[in-house]
Amino acid sequence: MSTDSSRPNVVLILADNLGWGELGCYGGGSLRGATTPRIDKLATEGLLLHNFNVESDCVPTRSALMSGRHPIRTGCRQSVPAGFPQGLTEWERTLAECLKTNEYATAHHGKWHLGDIPGRYPSDRGFDEWFGIPRTTDETQFTSALGYTPEVAELPYVMKGKAGDASENMCVYDLETRRLIDEMLVDRSKEWLTRKVEEKKPFFLYHPLVHLHFPTLPHNKFKGTTGQGDFADSMAEMDYRVGQIIDHIDDLGIRENTVFIFASDNGPEFREPYRGTAGPWSGTYHTAMEGSLRVPFIIRWPGQVPEGKTSNEIVHVTDIFTTILSITGTDLPSDRPIDGLDQTAFFKDSTNTKSPRTGFPFYIKDELRAIKWKDWKLHFVWEPKVNQSTGRLESPYLFNTVRDPKEESDILAFNTWVLQPMMKLKSEFDRSLKYDPAPPDPLKEV
Question: What sequence ranges are listed for the domain Sulfatase N-terminal (predicted)?
């Protein structure tokens, strides 16, 4: 562990498809069928963001988090099936690889989704060890699906690996294991944290949960506990699992010098019966609506981040890469464009300091769908619900997200001045892409 305040420990928990409106501290909780007392308490111990933004899909968000770069730069534009090129190329520098240069211990316990072949597993990309799933959770349905055989589609496995060694399969990732996986992940993280404290070395623990990704199935100990079905039961379990890690950090005596971040990778699930909610925002992941962009984010850093604060300042997932490196005194890669901005000063004084970020472009795959700037959102393609696109708009739609959170009233005709700063943001990003060209879409190359 680290007791040096300039080299704090970092624990990053990432929920899977947790919508903005699910947790109690975001207006959900009991209204969604399950209270979330542990995460709600965490929110009172640090800073809660109302305007933390991610990408449209699991792979793009995780690549942005690990590289500090928009997916249009890295080629990690979408989730793809096993056996197809996917994940971060060897040229990209991951958060874990950067921290290793600063002598941090690193571990990944959870869902990776950034490469499923030798050379691209977490233990090949800067993590000392890993345990979890290389891809995604809908694969747990394979073995019980009509017509499935391993000869036509790869069996999904829970895997583990250590740096310098080959990663190996542990067990088939089926529906039964789906119910057990988050318990397994927490047990691994607790054991690893205990070891790192004994070694007295600063560490980075990346713990991407599996909940609430569909099929959203709770552990048997939580099944039926809320009376509101599997989704609510899974929320209750997710809250409990986060609490287990919080308690273990406290028991180890490392709370004071540990940066603890809880966030989500995407907006809510939209498939019945596992439908989530984005609260006041419209849309789900796989769209450019605010319900896709905005997700929960809480940071606790005792003595550094004031308690009980909330903010509607814009923060983007790429900023987490840059900010963690800044907090730990680790050098940023200097040989490539980094899109993430350092939010350290803002996190430490959100009352008197503004986020350095005013906006960002939002792509789905290789298409610019929207630009977000301050309280404004400009859509170039209108797709309020998944697979319900009306195509590229002749005249873009403009919304003010404070006055019109559900993006219902296009007001571009009355606010064309907003096009100037937004188009400036676009042209600056386009210019940077010219000198850092995007890789080809891997699915188009197969």
Answer: 8-329
